[in-house]
Write a structure and sequence with these properties.
mainly beta; four-stranded antiparallel beta sheet; 11 strands
Length: 116
């Protein structure tokens, strides 16, 4: 089971951009499903974006047109490009993977703070 480490979280002003990275300890070439989730203070953890091995993507309505998920299999890395950030995007962002045999792995998260 891969271990996942997120990075790239920071404090930015509304309208700014950030790129989050999630590096896996093992190859992600065979991982069919990877995703970014986020959890705001006092709220549940929600899906932000997903990507399959074939590159098919899916986004939460709240981030469509602003966020882009991508993966670099050669670098074992998942990315989340976040543009036009809003204060409502403030949260801890987590990386998730699901292996072909159904094992789920989570990273420990990276904090994104957006000020108005």
């Amino acid at each position: 089971q891969a271990q996942l480490v997120e990075s790239g979280g920071d404090s930015v002003q509304a309208g700014g951009s950030l790129r989050l990275s999630c590096v896996a300890s093992r190859t992600i070439l065979v991982i069919n499903y990877m995703a970014w989730y986020r959890q705001a203070p006092g709220k549940e953890r929600d899906m932000v974006a997903t990507i399959t091995r074939s590159g098919r993507t899916n986004y939460a309505d709240s981030v469509k047109g602003r966020f882009t998920i991508s993966r670099d299999n050669a670098k074992n890395t998942l990315y989340l490009q976040m543009n036009s950030l809003e204060p409502e995007d403030t949260a801890v962002y987590y990386c998730k993977s699901v292996s072909p045999d159904g094992l789920t792995a989570w990273g420990k998260g990276t904090l994104v703070t957006v000020s108005s």
